[in-house]
Amino acid sequence: MEISLLTKEDLLEFKIELLLDIERILDEKIQHLEYTPKSMDPEWVRSKSIRDFMNISPGTLQNLRVTGKIKFKKVLGSYYYNIDDLKKLFENEKG
Fold it and tell me: 28, 46, 47, 88: least surrounded by Cβ within 10 Å?
């Protein structure tokens, strides 16, 4: 029978690996939620999805937020934007 001793360093390494695995799983779940089918048409969308869809920089999106041109909510450090406000903003720019 082989006896293995665990050191504090072993436990720290395990902790880091476990946290990275949890973070990866959560990121996968979030990405799955961000790319929901159009039929669901979410009312609020995360910053990254908006920037990718509109092909704008984080600074441009922040400027729209700070100037009050679009509604937003901040939840746990992430910004969510109202799709209807974005549509109205760009419809007004066309007209």
Answer: 28
**How far apart are alpha carbons 45 and 34 in whole angstroms?**
7
Report d(CA 23, CA 21) in Å as an integer. 5
Only one residue has tokens 């934007």, namely 81
Among 50, 95, 49, 48, CA closest to 70: 50
Tokens found for residue 26: 């959560």
Q: Note whether 29 and 71 are within 8 A (CB).
A: no
In the predicted structure, residue 41 carries a pLDDT above the cut 60: no
DSSP characters over 14-59: HHHHHHHHHHHHHHHHHHHHHT--TTT--SEEEHHHHHHHHT--HH
- Predicted confidence (pLDDT) per residue in 22-37, tens digit: 988 888 877 766 655 5
Does the pTM surpass 0.70? The reply is no
